[in-house]
Amino acid sequence: MAEQTVMINRAPVLTLWGAIVAERMGYDWEAALTFGKAMAGLNAQAKGRSLGIFGPPKTVERDGTPKKRGMGEEFWVEVCGRPVPAKNTDDGPRAVVKDKPIDPASVTKYLEGKFKDDLEAVAAAMRELANAFAPDELAGAAYGLYESFRPEIPKGEKGWGRPGELRLDLIRSLGTKA
Questions:
Q1: Does the pLDDT value for residue 51 go beyond 80?
Q2: Three-class DSSP category at 128
Q3: Tell me: the pLDDT tens digits for 53-63?
Q4: Angle of helix 29-50 versus helix 10-24 axis, rounded to 10
Q5: Does 121 have pLDDT greater than 60?
Q6: Domain residues for 121?
């Protein structure tokens, strides 16, 4: 198979990977999309704070750690090592931002806009990788796998939001090492 690369920034890559991981863990695709989007957003907030792009969280416990409640959640789902606030809706479980469930259609539109014609090929490579692991193994390995294949960008603030090269052959090769 010929090497295929996609120029893209990391946020949509992590969103799609998080959704595929959540799907492999047993969630339906619509729920998985919301979990991937929320997880990537929480990671971006943490990274932005570490780079000084964003200020500290507004709600902090006395010991200096952010609160992990009051975000409109009924429960938490761990995706790629990050707890994601979620609630049950009439349509099934959804990640929430504040008290609003994330709309899976908006995540689909976001991914289609970022990946364009490459979305299906990238998703197929990621699914191949996810399926190389049992769900419980994938849960523990997911973020490390992402770090292995994510697009390379400059370190620090100068890399924020910049595109890098996502190599589909690299994603597929990680599945053969499982």
A1: no
A2: helix
A3: 445 555 544 44
A4: 140
A5: yes
A6: 7-172
In a domain, 76, yes or no: yes
Contact 150, 14 (CB under 8 A): yes
Asked if residue 81 belongs to a domain, the reply is: yes
70 against 162, higher pLDDT: 162
Say yes or no to pLDDT of 131 above 60. Answer: yes
Q: Is the pLDDT of residue 149 over 70?
A: yes
When comparing pLDDT for 105 and 72, which is higher? Answer: 105
Please tell me the total count of domains within the chain: 1
Residue ranges in the chain assigned as alpha helix (H):
10-24, 29-50, 104-115, 119-131, 135-149, 168-176
Location of structure tokens 């052959």: 169
User: Is the CB of residue 91 less than 8 Å from the CB of residue 32?
Assistant: no
**Half-sphere exposure for 104 (CA within 13 Å, toward CB):** 14
- Which of 147, 168, 122 shows the shortest CA–CA distance to 19? 122
Sign of CA pseudo-dihedral 139, 154, 115, 105? positive
Q: Would you state the pLDDT for residue 119?
A: 97
Cα separation, 144 vs 17, whole angstroms = 12
CB atoms within 10 A of CB 10: 24
Average pLDDT, integer, range 69-92: 85
Query: Is residue 178 situated within a structural domain?
Result: no
Residue 1 lies in a domain: no
